[in-house]
């Protein structure tokens, strides 16, 4: 929630902590909880119906979005989101065209106060 890239995009979203606080989740009275860790599944399934989607098991963003859209009964909204995502990706590729030589690569990193992330395939 403190990530500078999220500034202006998380207003009205309750911070449930990291690690996730079961008490804060329970206060929200969710209809469905999606978790990525088995130990979270056990705690959260006592609060509401819970689905475990293990981290890094999907092959791509399309699979992730379609799975969540299907879970919440919003397949059309999921496809609309993917259409917009693909359009933005196309526009970004066009902006980058010619900026890299054929054998050059790009690394994407995120630096936070105490963490450093290297982005990969998923």
Automatic annotation (TrEMBL):
Q: Which Pfam families match?
A: Peripla_BP_2 (PF01497)
Keyword Thylakoid attached: no
Q: Does the keyword Electron transport apply?
A: no
UniProt GO BP: iron coordination entity transport
What Gene Ontology cellular-component terms does the record carry?
outer membrane-bounded periplasmic space
State the InterPro entries in the record: ABC_transptr_periplasmic_BD, Bact_iron-sidero_bind
Q: Enumerate the subcellular locations listed in this protein's record, separating them with semicolons.
A: Cell envelope
Residue limits of the Fe/B12 periplasmic-binding domain? 1-122
Superkingdom per UniProt: Bacteria
Keywords in alphabetical order: Ion transport, Iron, Iron transport, Signal, Transport
List, alphabetically, the Gene3D superfamilies matched.
Nitrogenase molybdenum iron protein domain
PANTHER family, per this entry? IRON III DICITRATE-BINDING PERIPLASMIC PROTEIN (PTHR30532), IRON(3+)-HYDROXAMATE-BINDING PROTEIN FHUD (PTHR30532:SF26)
* Entry similarity comment: Belongs to the bacterial solute-binding protein 8 family.
UniProt protein name: ABC transporter substrate-binding protein
């Amino acid at each position: 929630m403190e990530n500078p890239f999220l500034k202006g995009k998380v207003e009205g979203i309750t911070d449930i902590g990291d690690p996730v606080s079961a008490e804060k989740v329970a206060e929200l009275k969710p209809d469905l909880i999606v978790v990525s860790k088995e130990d979270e599944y056990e705690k959260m399934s006592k609060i509401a119906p819970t689905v475990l989607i293990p981290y890094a098991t999907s092959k791509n963003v399309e699979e992730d979005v379609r799975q969540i859209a299907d879970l919440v009964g919003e397949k059309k909204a999921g496809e609309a989101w993917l259409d917009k995502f693909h359009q933005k990706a196309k526009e970004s590729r066009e902006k980058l065209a010619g900026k890299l030589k054929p054998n050059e690569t790009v690394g994407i990193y995120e630096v936070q106060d105490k963490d450093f992330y290297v982005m990969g395939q998923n």
